[in-house]
Request: fold
Amino acid sequence: MVALTPISRKPVSFYVPVAAAAGAVAGLFVGTANGSGFLGIIIGAITMAALAFLLTQIIKNEKIGRWGTVIAFAIIGFFMAGIPAMLIGAAFGWFFGWFSFWLYEGRYRSKIEPYLTPAQVLWHFTFRVICGSIFIFLITPILVIMPLSFNAENFFTFTPEMLSFDPDGYSLKHYRDFFTSSDWQGAVWNSIKIAPAATFLSVSFGTLAAIGLSQPHVPFRRAIMAILISPMIVPLIISAAGMYFFYSRVGLQGTYVGVVLAHAALGIPFVIITVTATLVGFDRSLTRAAANMGANPVTTFFRVQMPLILPGVISGGLFAFITSFDEVVVVLFVGSAGQKTLPWQMFIGLREQISPTILAVATMLVGISICLLTVVELLRRRSERLRGMSPG
Reply:
């Protein structure tokens, strides 16, 4: 259990410069948005240093100081750029009001080991800031498209009405276009017909391959594993070109079966990896005990082994489904107009029509992906509990 260290107030020479550094980072973004990042850094650093000193040395009441900072920053933001800036300013005010007292009272040490040196404490929080920055860098492009999908105009940018939160600037027209367009609905049904079939093949072959390769007596296991997961490593354009020339020779190019087999080949590596990871903690004495009780290999697999590795199998299947549902390069090579999938239709919408309906489709796909990844995480935790790797 982590010991809680008593709160000790820090000197001004410590927390004011740290607050100034945080203000400089915030000022960089605000200043860049207004045309001068360098000026934003200077103003942000000076403002946050003065704010930290004012809150802790003059006001001294955290509740009053934080709410006052929120109101002040919200008012400044409103006069700078309207309601959106007001909301951002309020968020900044809340954070820096809390941050100043968090540093001043030494609360940053309350939930970490008391024996850590100042350098270790610095790295502890620096590491978290780096991880948070990477997360924001990755997630921001996805978050931007969501409000754009409600744009009342046929633009890929925020209109003045949207930025001012005018209800007339928002509409569900792009979602209506998606549900009423024969092209989009046909692409959805093609994806629904292809992805489950490809997932079924990926799960079947991938699970059997993972179980076989987990046996210590199988020769050349590493070489076979490298070959089976090569679709994840080889550039997709090379795999697609190879499939195109192979399928055209055997008569599968431009057919439903060809697209399903191609997507299954892309999904098998995900199943192999997840099932292999699940088999790491599998107790093989259970299968030997079942054999001693008279169970044949098929019965042993479905009654003993499969229930324990099922979370890994389902996780691999979900990844295979996402891979198939979201794939566009291979289907462009091996598919035909009759197998036009949803990603293919989105690619056409970007290349030929510049249709904002793509934003609505992308938003729905993000929602579906979040749901599937949530299921994967729940299954991962369940698998760890079944294997005794985490508390129940």
